[in-house]
Design a protein that fits this description.
Blueprint lengths: L14 H4 L7 E6 L4 E5 L5 E2 L4 H13 L20 H5 L10 H12 L4 H16 L5 E2 L1 H10 L1 H12 L7 H12 L1 E3 L1 H7 L1 H4 L14 H14 L5 H7 L4 E3 L4 E6 L3 E6 L10 H14 L8
Antiparallel strand pairs: 1-2, 1-8, 3-5, 4-5, 6-7, 7-8
Helix pairs in contact: 2-4, 4-7, 4-8, 5-8, 5-9, 6-8, 7-8, 11-12
Bound molecules: glutamine.
Organism: Bosea vaviloviae
EC number: 3.5.1.2
Protein name: Glutaminase
């Protein structure tokens, strides 16, 4: 699937993602007053993949609070999303919650001694609540494919288990992780779900509190510094907003106080982030002046 190299290449290591047409493009911007702007395939569902790490992190912080940081760092890794190299030197403590190793520890926290389906159901309900949309569902074919081919993730979970930083049987923790990555959403649903991060932790501008303002600020900070793996610096340089990508080609970006933005284009750059999605966000930031670093 390298027919359109200027759009990047779709992820092929998860078989159902290899079959997605790279010509898709969708964009949804929800502004602070609740106005929804959409373009292209904004209502077409796609696999949110690592964007789920934002919602799972929020869930885990709700369960164990700041104690989470005893098991996960808050520094950019400078390595690929699925890298294992730092874990040996750093005693099984992942650099941050957005690389796969960190997200597996988050999944382990969310599992919390229950059956995987309890943790998965809880996350799905949380995402549906955030998006105000009960139709959001898990694509079971994607979850099964990841379970069958996710050897790197299986290695990461087992390696961290050896350090005692995975508390459950690794296959249970992996089950939670694979299912959260397989949540299917469209750009509109995703932008709606990101509103709490634009509104300082509130569901809408005057809505119920989802998390404290401090927690929302910190999640945004982690998205800015770690949301695009070893390309997080480049994303901050080009777009200037907290953002989280997924290998399904989606990106959720937050302009605090101004907008929640979701973009989807399945072709990826070499760091596994949507190539055209990043470009589109760069253009949106340029056109609107939205940036956490000041307009320009
Ligand atoms: N960057 C991503 O979106 C990676 C998520 C994917 N499920 C994986 O574990 O490899």
């Amino acid at each position: 699937m390298a027919a359109l190299p200027e759009r990047g290449e779709v992820a092929t290591y998860i078989p159902p993602l290899a079959a997605i047409d790279p010509r898709h493009f969708g964009l949804c911007i929800v502004t602070a007053d609740g106005t929804v702007h959409m373009a292209g395939d904004a209502l077409e569902p796609f696999s949110i993949q690592s964007i789920s790490k934002v919602f799972a992190l929020t869930q885990a912080l709700g369960k164990v609070g700041e104690a989470l940081w005893n098991r996960i760092g808050r520094e950019p890794s400078g390595t690929a999303f699925n890298s294992i190299v730092q874990l040996e030197r750093e005693q099984g403590i992942p650099r941050n919650p957005f690389i796969n190793a960190g997200a597996l520890v988050v999944a382990d926290v969310n599992l919390g001694g229950h059956e995987p389906r309890v943790a998965i159901g809880e996350l799905l309900r949380f995402v549906r609540y955030l998006a105000d949309d009960d139709t959001i569902a898990i694509d079971e074919a994607v979850a099964r494919a990841e379970q069958a081919t996710g050897f790197r993730n299986i290695a990461l979970a087992n390696y961290m288990k050896a350090f005692g930083n995975i508390r459950h049987a690794p296959e249970l923790t992996l089950g939670v992780y694979f299912h959260q990555c397989a949540i299917a959403m469209n750009c509109r649903q995703l932008a709606m779900a990101g509103r709490f991060l634009m509104h300082g932790g509130r569901h809408g501008r005057a809505g119920a509190r989802v998390v404290s303002a401090l927690r929302a600020r910190r999640i945004n900070a982690l998205m800015l510094t770690c949301g695009h793996y070893d390309a997080s610096g480049d994303f901050a340089f080009r777009v200037g907003l907290p953002g989280k990508s997924g290998v399904g080609g989606g990106i959720l970006a937050i302009a605090p106080g101004r907008a929640s933005i979701a973009v989807w284009s399945p072709g990826l750059n070499t760091s596994g982030n949507s190539k055209i999605g990043t470009l589109a966000l760069e253009r949106v930031a340029e056109a609107t002046g939205w940036s956490v670093f000041g307009a320009g």
